[in-house]
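pasting for ref
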Amino acid sequence: MLKLSRINLINLKSKLILCVIFGVFLLSLSDNLYFFVDGEVGIWQYHCIRSTMIVGLLLLTAKMANINLIPKEFKRVFLRSVFNTLAIFCHFAGLSFLSVAEAGAGLFTAPIFVLMISWIFFSEKFSLLKLIAVILGTLGVGVLLQPDFKQLNFLLLFPVLAGFFYGLAVVTTKNWCSNESTLCLTTCYYFSFGLIGFIMTTAFHLISPETTYTETAKYFFVGWKPVDFNFLYWLLIQAILNVTAISLIIFAYQKIEASFLSIYEYFFLIFAAFWGWLLWSQTLELLKWIGIFLIIIAGLIISKNKKST
């Protein structure tokens, strides 16, 4: 009986691991499909329309599953949504000049920021091993982005800021929103992203800023533009992929401890590089692969030693 129970547990874990891996596989594909519509509209309009589609699918899912999406702590959920929104905006801003694997590596610096934020604001212990992980992760970011300090480009901050804000979202999720349903948090996040996208697109449409940044970051300062069927088609595909991927990952995290599964999310970087090569003939230099793996190693060290804090 004990042996049978152990076999069942192993089978369950294997299925949950596959859920996470397939989830990040779909997310990496979704991010690469962004390049089919890159440049057609500003980044704010893109996320406004995409988030509206995703929220619609999530509302339909909640209705079918009879799940209440009203948050218990509105202010805290709102703040978490803002952090997540800023993280994903910075991630997609990075896609304007980086591959999905490179921009995605920025998001995966989040464990480093989670560690630092938890240490500063929540007095969690900071071991020597975790200090080494922070140094490795920082080195990995430097190797990956290879900044030219003679010609500083503020655009290079986007991938790192994505990791920072995502780290804030993770910390607030753990400390403030543990009693909220995952579907509620996800829906609130995409709703806030869509709302901010609508506000910013409308603002830039009315103001029409003429600055030196409109050329270097024109995706940021763009108002409303007409869209065609092709644009809406690719966004709908992305929305379906995102909802499916998130549902798989949420299902897995509801069944077993997060520290066990979070390691497998790093497959995103490998899959992102694969889709970039298959769809867009993007290849990464050896040095950039080294940077990605340094970030992965740092994240694994931190994830495997969460129980020591």
